[in-house]
Automatic annotation (TrEMBL):
GO terms for cellular component: mitochondrial small ribosomal subunit. One of its GO terms (molecular function) is structural constituent of ribosome. GO terms for biological process: mitochondrial translation. It comes from Candida verbasci. The lineage of its organism: Eukaryota, Fungi, Dikarya, Ascomycota, Saccharomycotina. This is 37S ribosomal protein S35, mitochondrial. InterPro entries: Ribosomal_mS45. It holds the Pfam family Bot1p.
Amino acid sequence: MKRNLSTTTRLLRFNRRATMDKANLTKEMKQWLGPKNILGDYVKNPYFYPNQNNKPNYIQTQKKIYGRDSTINPFPLNQYTKTNYIISEDLKDKILEDATNLHPQEIAHKYGINLQRIEAIIKLKSIEKDFKVKDELVEDLKRFSTVMKNYFPLFNHQTVDNLTEIPTKRINDRFLTIEENEPFGPVDAAKILKLEPAETTLKSLTEFNLEDHQKKQQALEDKKVSVVYGKKREGEKSVFRFTQKDVGTFGHRYGASRRDRKKDRAIGFDSLGKMIYLHPNN
């Protein structure tokens, strides 16, 4: 029986130990990173500065891989992992305007955006109104957000998110055909909608349990701790805070004093005959 060997492909032999040599790996890494500047940054590396044209500069391979977009797929050998598109500020403003009249599910279908992203945009915009940033962080946050917005690809109507999780049937009204003389009340409607009756809901909202209320108030009182804040002077970044604690129930000793490390410490005995180290003043 003959064994035919293929001659179309070249058999490459390599030394595994040589490829995993630490010195070689360090040398190749330094060649790829390039020289450092005075701050320790590799400014001459082609991937050091992020692109600002909404096209990420992911690592590109020498050989072009079929089906891979280097601006969307971060991993060369995985074409299924894709970078998500960011929503522009103009589109966010339109979503907020529609949120006053439309349901988030309807907005998701209108723009072709995932429902969770629509809900997140509405929620974060409401938080942004009351969010206050420290003065010393304003410039850094502004610079960081500008770079990130210009780095990732922008969402457009040609790139539609996966909308399969949106229950489209719940958007439409529900109709039920019944006889003219057939009784139909709130309890029957609650059963069809799989909700509890309105009477039960209103009763639970109006009931007031005095014992539960007193327990909650007592729990809040127990958690209260007296705190005194120090005065923050000009130029200081920190504020001292003093918290009231009971003596003997808080704090512990750490480290060792100088006399505890001496080899010729004075030794004595207490009333029970236990050996103790005497204080130098005794």
